[in-house]
Design a protein that fits this description.
Helix 11 (230-233) links the parallel strand 9 and strand 10. 48% of the residues lie in helices and 18% in strands. Helix 4 (66-83) crosses helix 5 (94-104) and helix 5 (94-104) packs parallel to helix 6. The strands form two sheets. Strands 3-2-1-4-5-6-7 form a seven-stranded parallel sheet, with helices on both faces. The protein has a six-stranded parallel sheet with strand order 10-9-8-11-12-13, sandwiched between helices. It contains 18 helices and 13 strands. It is an alpha/beta fold and 370 residues long. It is globular and about 60 Å long. It has two domains: 2-161 and 354-369, Rossmann fold (3-Layer(aba) Sandwich), CATH 3.40.50.2000; 168-351, Rossmann fold (3-Layer(aba) Sandwich), CATH 3.40.50.2000. This is Lipid-A-disaccharide synthase.
């Protein structure tokens, strides 16, 4: 059967890759065409467009790139028509994917959505589009099932969180080997995860690294995104105590003592690796002002949203400054604080439903097509 998958960001590339592996296992003759990244490309199939050409963050930034976005939608529609897939599989990325779903449904193409748009955070009105244009929805957060079924009377499948699979399947690396390969010294590691898009990396790295001199007994290691070249990060590496690894985030988290993490999927990944973290987010002033008025959630990190309490500290906008980062980083390196936090992380993992999300989703998709 023919599968067309659309993932528009680094996290979607990761989940898309694991889903593709499961689809090939379930349907060895699967013909997969996709929008995604290097991880999906390594699995197989045909890459149409890389997510590095698709990811724009913030309201103002999207407006500036509107012509590019509309052109990508046009390219995507034509490619789908030429490919004639048995099913379209959308992975998050709602601004783009819901437009494609609306166009595809009247053409009789099956529309499956894996990893729900976060309409519980903002744009809840999108539920109308989803109910009309999406045939099957597979959700990965425990509270999403109640949100869709009890509040909006739209049946969904809770398949568990694919990050648990990704982390469970990640091969362990010996700490000494990791340090040697990446020219790291013996000091404990503070991981810096500034995001995957140039805009957020530029905004976040300077403030995250502003506290380096306050922690001389640690080395700060930047997790380079697979979509960015080392030359982009080079100007931020201004001291001996700042190191860099590219496309090795999981190896880095496996060996980290603490982490500073830009809000997003990385906050959950860090928690599942049992690394104490401080969540940092700083957007453009206009984008932040707009978001503050339309997003009504108590928290911005997935860890806190799933647990429904402030398990990890969130430093947002004006609070994301050197003084506050210094204070919170000192806290999470203290033994008693760390022990309590790690206990909360164990409860978090239990809530996420165990391993097997990719396999469950692939079985449901193939079963529906058959």
């Amino acid at each position: 059967m023919k599968y067309y998958i659309i993932a528009g960001e680094a996290s979607g590339d990761l989940h898309g890759a694991n889903l593709m592996k499961a689809l090939y296992k379930e349907d060895p003759n699967a013909n997969i065409r996709f929008w995604g990244g290097d991880l999906m490309q390594n699995v197989g199939g045909t890459l149409v467009k890389h997510y590095r050409d698709l990811a724009f963050m913030g309201f103002v930034e999207v407006l500036f790139h509107l012509r590019t976005i509309l052109n990508n939608i046009k390219i995507c529609k034509k490619d789908i028509v030429d490919f004639q897939p048995d099913v379209l599989i959308f992975i998050d990325y709602p601004g783009f994917n819901l437009r494609i779903a609306k166009w595809a449904k009247p053409l009789g193409i099956k529309t499956h959505y894996y990893i729900s748009p976060q309409i519980w955070a903002w744009k809840e009105s999108r539920i109308t589009e989803i109910k009309h244009d999406v045939d099957k929805m597979f959700v990965i957060l425990p509270f999403e099932k109640d949100f869709y079924e009890k509040k909006h009377h739209f049946p969904v499948e809770f398949v568990g969180h694919p990050l648990i699979d990704a982390i469970h399947n990640h091969p362990a690396i010996d700490a000494s080997v990791f340090r040697k390969e990446n020219q790291l010294n013996e000091k404990p590691i503070i991981a810096i995860l500034p995001g995957s898009r140039k805009q957020e990396i530029t905004k976040m790295l300077s403030v995250m690294l502003s506290v380096v001199n306050d922690f001389p007994d640690y080395q700060f290691v930047i997790a380079g995104a697979p979509s960015q070249e080392f030359s982009f990060y080079k100007d931020f590496i201004t001291q001996e105590n700042i190191k860099f690894v590219s496309n090795k985030t999981y190896d880095l988290l496996s060996n980290a003592t603490a982490a500073l993490v830009t809000s997003g999927t990385a906050t959950l990944e860090t928690a599942l690796f049992k690394v104490p973290e401080v969540v940092c987010y700083k957007g453009s002033w206009i984008s932040y002002q707009i978001a503050k008025r339309i997003i009504t959630l108590k928290y911005i990190s997935l860890v806190n949203l799933i647990m429904d309490e402030e398990v990890v500290t969130e430093l947002i906008q004006d609070d994301c400054n050197s003084k506050r980062i210094r204070e919170e980083l000192k806290k999470i390196t203290e033994p008693n604080y760390r022990q309590n936090l790690l206990g909360k992380y164990e409860l978090l993992e239990q809530k996420l439903g165990g391993i097997g999300a990719s396999e469950k989703t692939a079985k449901l998709i193939v079963g529906d097509l058959k």
